[in-house]
Amino acid sequence: xxxxxxxxxxxxxxxxxxxxxxxxxxxxxxxxxxxxxxxxxxxxxxxxxxxxxxxxxxxxxxxxxxxxxxxxxxxxxxxxxxxxxxxxxxxxxxxxxxxxxxxxxxxxxxxxxxxxxxxxxxxxxxxxxxxxxxxxxxxxxxxxxxxxxxxxxxxxxxxxxxxxxxxxxxxxxxxxxxxxxxxxxxxxxxxxxxxxxxxxxxxxxxxxxxxxxxxxxxxxxxxxxxx
Length: 227
Hints:
This protein is an alpha+beta fold. It is about 50% helix and about 20% strand. It has a seven-stranded antiparallel β-sheet. Strand 8 and strand 9 form a beta hairpin.
């Protein structure tokens, strides 16, 4: 009985092994054939190395063109007194703050400030300095009640020691203090560059003009011969 059962199981196993070999062998050959064909197609369709390098360069050029240019740094200078250096000889310069109203700051941000006729005078007690005759236009969007006087005197924020020094030099040496330029500092506050000056006569002005013209002519000649 056992030998008959063993013979039947052996035949069944033999049949199953033959069937698996007959079925799996074609499948394996088919898969191998498909992979080889795909490799051949990909190798035939692959672009050359030169084409790849040119396309990569073209892409980098396009990316470089698409990148936005950096915005230029905005200048913090509000206005410059150009007549000061023409009419005066600069002896010493310093930075000073100025006490302003809200409408004055708004007008300054709109560019309504002129230092052309301005000058600085220390007070009689030598405790502070006052800024005179500097024009700051009225703010357009403010009412008349909140407006400021355009040429009012404004107090400068300087130390007492510096104010006393200016008072001594203006009274004894006959010097003048004028504002050179107005600008915004790093904290976005309005600052003035004031200078202790001595007035020029007509001869000094002519010499300065002559030197400036000679310097311009020299720069023009150098620029024309530059390779």
